[in-house]
Amino acid sequence: MDPPEGELDTTQARGPFRAFRKAYGKARDWHCSRGRATVVALRFALTGDSGRFRSHGGWMVSRIYKPR
Fold it and tell me: Which domain of life is it from (predicted)?
């Protein structure tokens, strides 16, 4: 059953927020600053790929992506 034209499905509305939280939490766990983690999470939520970024206190380059 399709929702009416003006209403969003709850799973669709929640998807980008869940993706943002997942990527933000992972970047913070990898010792990124709050600002860098926010940029990484926003890129991941919008595109499904964070791109490469410095993590682990600057000692590693990491990437968060959705497998295809």
Answer: Bacteria
